[in-house]
Amino acid sequence: MWKRIILRRFFGDSPENLRQIQEELAKQDVRPPFYKYEELRAATKNFSKENELGKGGSGAVYKAELADKSTVAVKLLYSTEQSLTDFLKEAVVVTGIKHRNLVQLKGCCIRDKKRILVYELAENGNLAQALWGHGGSVFLNWAQRVKICIDVAKGLSYLHEELRPKIIHRDINPQNILLDKDWNAKIADFGLARHMKKDEGTQTITIQGTWGYVSPEYITQGLITEKLDVYSYGIVLLEIISGRKCVDPLAPAEEFYLQQWAFNLYKAGCLWKMAEKALLNSVPPEEIESLLKMALSCLQANYEDRPAMSAVVIMLTGNAFGLGMDTTGFIR
Questions:
Q1: What pLDDT does 81 receive?
Q2: Which Gene3D superfamilies match (predicted)?
C-alpha cells in the first residue's frame, strides 16, 4: 500500500519538498531524524573520493565524522527519476527495525534532488572487501567465517520469520554484508527489499538484484518468496568458504561457476576440496564439508526444498551442518 501511495504522490512531475516527504513518511509511521545537508557535506569532506567506502546499485557510501565526533556511514543515492521512490522505500523498510545483525538507520537528509540515508558505520567494510579487496592483507580465519555465516543467517531469520509483515531482502551478496570493528556481520542496503504479507509469495515482471545471486524461480517466473534470500545466502556461503567469487572468469572451465563446481565435487565425494587452501591446513575436512553441504541445501532448484533460515541458524549454532538434499534438484 505504501508503495502505491509513494508512486502516486511523488513520481514524475509531482512537487517535492522536505515537509511533503516528512508527512508521507509519517503516514507510514516512519519518523527518522533529519540531518542538515551542510553537516553531512562537511562530515564527508564534500563527498570526497577519500571518504568513499564503496558503491552499490542505488548509491555511493561515505565515511563521515559528525560534529559530535561520532562516525557514521552516509549513503548518497544516485540522482535518477526513481531516487525519491528508492529513498522513501528504504526509509520505510529500515526504520524501526532493530537487530544486531541488521545495519541501523540513524536518519536521513533531503536537499533539492539529493537523497541521503545515514547509517551506523561498519569499521571493517563489507564482506567482499574482506574476502577479495585488501590485497591479501586481511585473512578471515575459520571461526570468523563461521561467525559471519551465523550472523547473516540470524539477520535473515529475523526478517523472514519474526517481523510482520516479513521482509524479503532480494539482494543478499558480499557487498551488502557489513563487518563492524569486532567482525560482527550486518545485512545492509534495503533498496530492493519487499514487505510480504502473504505466505505464498508474489510475482514481478521486473527482475532486480545482483547477477549470480538471484534464484532460478525469480529469474524464470519472477517469483518472490523468502527462499529467494535463502538461495542468495547459499551462494555467499560458498564464497566465504572457498574464497572465490560466484563467477570466476580466470578459473579453469570446470570451476567457472562456483555453484556448479561445488555440486560436481559433492557428487565426487570430495566437496571439502573447494575450501580456500589456507583453511585446509587448519580445519578438519569433515567440518568444512558439513558447512558446504549446508550451502548446497540452500541452493536446491526447487525453492520449497530449501531450508528456512531459522533452521539454518539452529543447525549452525548447534554445530550440526548437514541437511538432507535431493541431489537431482540442483542446477546443472
A1: 62
A2: Phosphorylase Kinase, domain 1, Transferase(Phosphotransferase) domain 1
Where are the alpha helices (H) located in the chain, listed in sequence order? 2-10, 18-27, 37-43, 83-94, 127-128, 142-157, 216-221, 226-242, 258-268, 277-280, 285-297, 309-317
Cα separation of 267 and 286, whole Å? 15
Q: 3-state DSSP call for residue 313? A: helix
Model confidence pLDDT, tens digit, residues 121-161:
999 999 999 999 865 567 899 999 999 999 999 999 999 99
pLDDT at 71 over 70: yes
CATH 3.30.200.20 applies to domain 2-120: yes
Q: Residue ranges per domain, the chain?
A: 2-120, 127-329
Spatial separation of the C-alpha atoms in residues 130 and 86, rounded to whole Å: 28
Amino acid, single-letter form, for residue 272: W
Q: Which position among 171, 199, 305, 326 bears the catalytic label?
A: 171
Q: What's the pLDDT score for residue 114?
A: 86
| Integer Cα distance of 103 and 177 in angstroms | 9
Whether 151 is catalytic is no
pLDDT, position 15: 40
Contacts of 198 (CB under 8 A, 6+ apart): none
Residue 222 predicted with pLDDT over 70: yes
Tell me whether residue 186 is annotated as binding: no
